[in-house]
Amino acid sequence: MKEIHNESLKQQLIKNSAYQEHFSFNVEQETRLLHIMAGDYIVKEGERPVYLFYLARGRAKLYATLANGRVSLIDFFAASCFIGEIELIDQQHESRAVQAIEECWCLALPAKQFRAQLLNDAVFLRNLCMSLTQKNYRNIVSLTRNQSFPLVNRLAAFILLTQHGDLYHEKHTQVAEYMGVSYRHLLFVIAQLVDDGFLIKQKSGYAIKNKPAIIALAREMEPDATLFST
């Protein structure tokens, strides 16, 4: 993660992401512009975030290390949204890892400096409640999908969500746990996508060969979803 001193880009991201509208007071001057490369961490597990992050561009994933040492995927973030808001509200909350799936740009407000003011800002708290409600609804939809659609459709949507540069390389064990299926079942469906010519197996993962076909599988669950587009 690197702070970028580019006022023009910062103002562009503030405007395009409606960042300032989430606060009742002007935060632009104290907001930092941070650049995160794909694979780097926005928040490290167990380390309290120094900033309240606002993901203005890019995608990231949230995961945690369990007591038995296994790493469990929890959720995915796409611009625009807050990251680190739970740690801001609850100082006893144990931080989970947030890792960039692709190049990310974050607007960041120093958490310690602004915590008291933010927790007394009705505009910020109202927007935060709406954001948390949307995240909760997304998790409910994900659970409903797991119960209602075949794995091939859910995996297609997952591939589109996590791919970077048309390359999918998530760990099978984590994906199987996230989707509530067996490791063997997951491998069977991935092999099916390879046999059908939708994916090509490579050393670094799976290249998406037939993206329209993957999108078509995903859209069987959500025909109008803007995420599943070329």
TrEMBL record:
Residues 38-135 form the Cyclic nucleotide-binding domain. Coiled coil: none annotated. It holds the Pfam family cNMP_binding. PROSITE patterns: CNMP_BINDING_3. It comes from the Bacteria. CDD domains: CAP_ED. This is Putative N-ribosyl nicotinamide Crp family regulator. It comes from Ewingella americana (strain ATCC 33852 / DSM 4580 / CCUG 14506 / JCM 5911 / LMG 7869 / NCTC 12157 / CDC 1468-78). The lineage of its organism: Bacteria, Pseudomonadati, Pseudomonadota, Gammaproteobacteria, Enterobacterales.
